[in-house]
Amino acid sequence: MRVKQAEKIIEEKSKEKYSIEIPDEIKCAFRDIGKQLPTIWSKPELSHKQRKEFLRCLIDKVVVHRQERDTISVRIVWKGGDTTTTSINVR
């Protein structure tokens, strides 16, 4: 009986831990930042080092494969799980 009660308490606590309500103002702020990223990125005030640090916050990993002699395939895995894939000619 005590084990079942403990399991129930653990389950309830774990749900509390991961159910975070994000206020609408914060959601809107992040949406706005996303729309402004190209402008922010191109500003001369942002140093090369800061751009690299920013990318490190967004990218989980980069996978590179040589498809052919002059072509590589690049797959970027973003922190949220989305991916972007492109091929690059490397003559």
Architecture overview:
The chain is of the alpha+beta class and 91 residues long. The protein has one domain. The chain is 52% helix and 27% strand. It has a three-stranded antiparallel β-sheet. It is flat.
Overall pLDDT confidence: 85
The SS-based structural class is alpha+beta
Number of helices: 3
Strand proportion: 25-35%
Number of strands: 3
> Level of helix content?
40-55%
Question: How many distinct folded domains?
Answer: 1
Indicate the radius of gyration in whole angstroms.
21 Å
Shape: flat
SSE succession: HHHEEE
Low-confidence stretches: none
Largest sheet: 3 strands, antiparallel
Report the end-to-end length measured between terminal Cα atoms.
70 Å
